[in-house]
From TrEMBL:
Tagged with keyword Chaperone: no
Catalysed reactions, semicolon-separated: Hydrolysis of terminal, non-reducing alpha-D-mannose residues in alpha-D-mannosides
Organism: Sphagnum jensenii
Family to which the UniProt record says this protein belongs: Belongs to the glycosyl hydrolase 38 family.
Record InterPro entries: Gal_mutarotase_sf_dom (IPR011013), GH38_C (IPR041147), Glyco_hydro/deAcase_b/a-brl (IPR011330), Glyco_hydro_38_C (IPR011682), Glyco_hydro_38_cen (IPR015341), Glyco_hydro_38_cen_sf (IPR037094), Glyco_hydro_38_N (IPR000602), Glyco_hydro_38_N_sf (IPR027291)
The protein, known as: Alpha-mannosidase
Residues making up the signal peptide according to the UniProt record: none
SMART domains: Alpha-mann_mid
Domain Glycoside hydrolase family 38 central positions: 385-461
PANTHER family membership: ALPHA-MANNOSIDASE (PTHR11607), LYSOSOMAL ALPHA-MANNOSIDASE (PTHR11607:SF3)
Length: 1071
């Protein structure tokens, strides 16, 4: 026989230990005769090499042409938090919940791989791998590096976590993948080839084209697809497809994508984990229960059945499961035998493999593949079991993740701007980056983890962001605002409960509140800002020293209650017991990648502009009934009308076009099923599954005496409540083209023992013909058709839940001329259940577990310091626009980018006079004559290290799709040098999306043959809308440059880059 690890380079791949065969034939003569293969028997030659007690299995097989090849892919699926926290899973603590310890998985796999060079293993979750790796000795690290080099250990997927695909934003998906990929590159010099999203509950277009093809992956595998879809795919042999996820990038960003045959486990008889109750291979005929023939037969039977569902003669078996291989020997020893005896049998060929080897074999087969567009949402595993609840589950955690996403990007920019010496032991963004990467996990931001794990995640986010806020304290004077070094800038993380001690300080004469407003976008932005204050008459001075208009608006009633609850519960020290009385509102004009500073002080008689007090109109419904009238908000480019009798929104009018659209807004709740229904009696609504008891959404009416209108020159607001536990503020800022709705939902009452899933609905008379559009991870919009799927004839048993889709940017519908659009501030579920109508699910409180593993009802509570608990209250914001399609499309993209990357605030109270002089009240990192085109956004600007060399990772995105906007769905040109006014670019390297390889050195994309396409490879050349490669040495003036004065660094224009619609480019820049 061959030596271990020595591949047979001749063509008889199936040759196995002949001496063993002879021995075996003696015992199994009758059975082996069924085997089709005639294997030579050279007993004497090999006799000495085989003895009982020193049994050697031949595991060296490669793929064999002309046979069914079964690629055995040893793997473990390690959730970075679910029933236990990430650290508990790593260490193996809290085993009473679940026996799982990833440290032993990696320990034992590495030992098992050293035993036999043919054995292979893939490892996925870098959060665990990094924990393990940094505690290994240099000797062990060398061994592992060797295993990686030999291809025995392969990193697959390679992100910090296996991100969710519904509740994640593409910017965060890219970030968490980059964190894993760069670490792998630095430690091992390799770049993962294969996407491995085997557990997420539905699959997104952005995953396929952006986090797949554009990342440089050659393929992407997953396990979960709708049960009806899967049925058809098995029949049609369309389990594996070429997936074009982007209309804009087309075939240039297509990828081979495969649904696994048997979830991500082997058929249960071949699960070899330590706790498996299956009979293991018993191949010693002297012992009882010898079972080799039965197991080989069973294996061959499974394989032959599976082969009916897949193209080519290559099949993949995922040999592993959740947290499997804690004792790797049971798996590998059994697989050694499996491979040995199956190949001896000869009907099919089994081999140790990885997804990469499998993919290369598929590619070599030169088969044609069906084309797939769109995505794999929503996911149902049975008729009444749509996994569409988790689009909204733990809405507050989802909101926290999204809020910190924008905060992290802004913090990284500031970290880069203030320089590297900060990194030497000082506070930095690393911890928040890791926490955010962890939260992208499919049991993280998805909301499908146990409560104690959700708490652990939230704590990690809080600790990470608290450290980041210290950066502001260390910002050197050259950059920031004041000469006094003992005055620190403070961030207010609790603005969501209107808690900000610094801004709430009573300001006597002689003291000023300094507010620094930072803009992380590459455009100048003018936006209304607000924060809580206590003083009534204030004057706001802008960065140029001008007194500017401001307005006071009272806090909504719900704000006081929440603030009290959280201040009580969390021992937040309040300087005095006074509560803030107002939100101070004013317009901030902030330069790109920069800040501006405002000084706020008590207005004196000489003040030119004093904060405008509000005019309120409190009306009870009864009062209105006596004098029916319409309440109108008219401050913006859109105007809202509310019914005088019901208090409900009735109409939206576009002041520019003069066109009015009937628009009702309402709240209602679905009754989450307790599972005791006639059909499928065990399916309750829970953390994963949305299953309303009926299709009825029970309405909440605007309650009596509930509506208050506040007017002023800058903003108009309607405060209204629909129930003691549900209220909202609708506001329109001056000249705004949208309405902003701030909702407060909770504590959802459960004293009637009914679980509730709370929804807001917007109803218009637009004839949308069942069609609506939802975003894919905050990027492309996909068309949805109610009660329909693109890939099969849908049978809908759940008319509500089966039409829900995940939103991260928003949702819209349209008729011939007009779009109704809603943008969201976090991941939520949404749908259009009737024509002209959109709905968002905002919060869920449920009383039963839905049987998908988490083992808890989604019933979040919060407790005060006396231990009194109540249901969690969720606050959030959504934005409504109705307008002509072109305007609406622009608004969705541009305003959506502002929602994603909001202005960031820092506060300080300074004494007036010498100490408080603001040194540089305004700053922009960019060339003062430059801003990015409106269709380009900065996604990432981050200082990174390659072998101790500091570089800047810059990611730019064209945020428009093809055919979306007449004026902005175009290629855009960016001058990289103009982004950095004070530094001269020394070198720019365009790199892959996860910044782990040079673009120029990336593997060439595989050219797949698509079923029905004219000729092989043809389709991949028709559509290559990527922007030109970097234009170098072609000095020219960019039209965006308004004014290039002498000596202006703008004149250097050799770093121009072009971004086609929906294109993202990543650069590593050295200065
Ligand atoms: Zn999982």
């Amino acid at each position: 026989m061959m030596k271990r690890g020595e591949k047979n380079h001749h063509h008889h791949h199936h040759v196995i230990n002949p001496s063993f065969l002879c021995f075996w034939l003696l015992f199994m003569l009758g059975w082996i005769s069924r085997s089709s293969n005639s294997i030579g028997c050279n007993a004497q030659e090999e006799e000495e090499k085989f003895r009982f007690g020193a049994r050697v299995y031949n595991t060296s097989s490669d793929a064999v042409s002309g046979k069914l090849n079964v690629h055995l892919v040893p793997h473990t699926h390690d959730d970075v938090g679910w029933l236990k926290t990430v650290d508990q899973y790593f260490i193996g603590s809290n085993n009473s919940i679940q026996v799982a310890a990833v440290q032993y998985v990696l320990d034992s796999v590495v030992a098992a791989l050293q035993e036999d060079r043919n054995r292979k293993f893939i490892y996925v979750e870098q959060a665990f791998f990094q924990r393990w790796w940094r505690e290994q000795t240099p000797r062990k690290q060398k061994i592992v590096q060797k295993l990686v080099k030999r291809g025995q250990l392969e990193f697959i997927n390679g992100g910090y976590s296996m991100h969710d695909e519904a509740a994640t934003h593409y910017v965060d998906m890219i970030d968490q993948t980059t964190l894993g990929h760069r670490y792998i590159k630095q430690q091992f010099g390799v770049t993962p080839r294969i996407g491995w999203q085997i557990d997420p509950f539905g699959h997104s277009a952005v995953q396929a084209y952006l986090l797949g093809a554009e990342l440089g992956f050659d393929a992407f595998f997953f396990a979960r697809a709708d049960y009806q879809d899967l049925q058809k795919r098995r029949k049609d042999q369309t389990m594996e497809v070429i997936w074009q996820g982007s209309k804009s990038l087309g075939s240039s960003a297509q990828i081979f994508a495969g649904v696994l045959s048997h979830h991500y486990e082997p058929p249960s008889a071949f699960s070899f984990d330590i706790d498996s109750t299956n009979p293991p291979f018993q191949d010693d005929p002297r012992l009882s229960d010898y079972n080799v023939p039965e197991l080989v037969d069973l294996f061959v039977e499974y394989v032959q059945n599976q082969s009916k569902e897949f193209r080519t003669n290559h099949l993949m078996w995922t040999m592993g499961d959740d947290f499997a291989y804690e004792y790797a020997n049971t798996w590998f020893k059994q697989m050694d035998k499996l491979i040995h005896y199956v190949n001896l049998d000869g009907r099919v060929n089994a081999l140790y493999s990885t997804p990469s080897i499998y993919l290369d074999a598929k590619y070599a087969a030169n088969e044609t593949w069906p084309l797939k567009t769109g995505d794999f949402f929503p996911y149902a595993d049975k008729a009444h079991c749509y996994w569409t609840g988790y689009f909204t589950s733990r809405s507050s955690l989802k909101g926290y993740v999204r809020k910190l996403s924008g905060f992290l990007q802004a913090a990284r920019q500031v970290e880069f701007l203030v320089g590297k010496n900060l990194r030497n032991g000082g506070p930095n963004t690393d911890k928040l980056e890791e926490a955010m990467a962890l939260l992208q996990h499919h049991d993280g931001v998805s909301g499908t983890e146990k409560q104690h794990v959700a708490n652990d995640y939230a704590e990690r986010l809080a600790v990470g962001s608290a450290e980041v806020s210290l950066i502001a304290k260390h910002i050197p004077m050259k950059l920031f605002v004041c000469k006094r070094t003992d005055s620190w800038l403070l961030q207010c993380f609790l603005l969501n409960i209107s808690y900000c001690p610094t801004s709430e300080t009573e300001l006597p004469f002689g003291k000023s509140l300094i507010v620094v407003v930072y803009n992380p976008l590459g455009w100048t932005r003018e936006e209304y800002v607000r924060f809580p204050v206590s003083s009534a008459a204030l004057e706001v001075i802008d960065g140029a020293g001008n007194s500017i208009p401001s307005q006071l608006v009272p806090l909504p009633k719900s704000a006081y209650r929440l603030r009290k609850l959280y201040v009580d519960g969390n021992d937040v020290s309040v300087a005095d017991n006074s509560l803030p009385r107002f939100h101070l509102v004013f317009s901030a004009v902030v330069p790109p990648l920069g800040y501006t500073t405002f000084r706020i002080h008590k207005a004196s008689s000489s003040s030119t502009t004093t904060s405008h007090p509000y005019v309120s109109m409190e009306s009870s419904t009864a009062e209105m009934l006596r004098a029916p009238s319409t309440v109108q908000l008219t401050s913006g480019q859109i105007e809202l009308s509310f019914s005088g009798t019901t208090g409900l929104l009735t109409q939206l009018r576009n002041a520019n076009t003069g066109k009015a659209t009937a628009l009702q807004q309402s709240y209602c709740w679905y009754n989450g099923s307790d599972g005791r229904t006639a059909e499928d009696p065990y399916q309750a609504s829970g953390a994963y599954v949305f299953r309303p008891n009926t299709s009825t959404c029970f309405p909440l009416k605007s309650s009596d005496e509930s509506m208050t209108v506040f007017r002023g020159p800058l903003v108009e607001e309607v405060h209204q409540s629909f129930a003691p536990w549900l209220s909202q503020v609708i506001r329109i800022y001056k000249d705004a083209e949208y309405a902003e709705v701030h909702f407060t939902v909770g504590p959802i009452p459960i004293d009637d023992s009914l679980g509730k899933e709370v929804v807001t609905r917007l109803t218009t008379n637009l004839t949308s013909n069942k069609e609506f559009y939802t975003d894919s991870n905050g990027r492309d919009f996909l068309k949805r058709v109610r009660d329909q799927r693109t890939d099969w004839d849908l049978i809908v048993k759940e008319p509500i839940a089966g039409n829900y889709y995940p939103l991260n940017l928003g949702i819209y519908l349209k008729d011939n001329t007009t779009d109704l659009s809603v943008l969201v501030d976090r991941a939520v579920g949404g749908s259009s259940i009737s024509d002209g109508e959109l709905e968002l699910m905002l919060h869920r409180r449920l009383l039963h577990d839905d049987g998908r593993g988490v083992g808890e009802a989604l019933n979040e509570t919060v407790c005060n310091s006396n231990g009194e608990c109540e249901g969690l209250t969720v606050q959030g914001t959504f934005y409504i626009n109705i307008g002509p399609s072109e305007q609406s499309a622009q608004w969705r993209r541009v305003h959506g980018q502002k929602v994603l990357m909001p202005l960031q605030f820092a506060f300080s109270v300074l004494e007036d006079g010498n100490g408080g002089v603001i040194q540089s009240p305004e700053f922009s990192a960019m060339n003062p004559h430059y801003e990015l085109p409106k269709n380009v956004a900065i996604l990432t600007l981050q200082e990174v290290y390659d072998d101790d060399d500091s570089k800047v990772l810059l990611r730019l995105a064209n945020i428009f799709e093809v055919e979306e906007s007449e004026s902005l769905s175009k290629s855009a040109t960016v001058d990289l040098q103009a982004l950095f006014s004070n530094r001269e670019i020394d070198e720019v390297e365009e790199v892959s999306l996860s910044a782990n390889q040079k673009k120029s050195e990336m593997r060439k994309k595989l050219q797949w043959r698509i079923e029905g396409a004219a000729a092989a490879g043809d389709s991949s050349h028709k559509n290559t809308p990527h922007g030109d490669p970097m234009i170098k040495n072609t000095p020219r003036r960019d039209p965006m440059i308004k004014n290039s004065s002498c000596g202006d660094p703008m004149i250097r224009t050799k770093y121009m880059v072009v971004l086609a619609p929906m294109e993202i480019k990543t650069f590593l820049i050295e200065f």
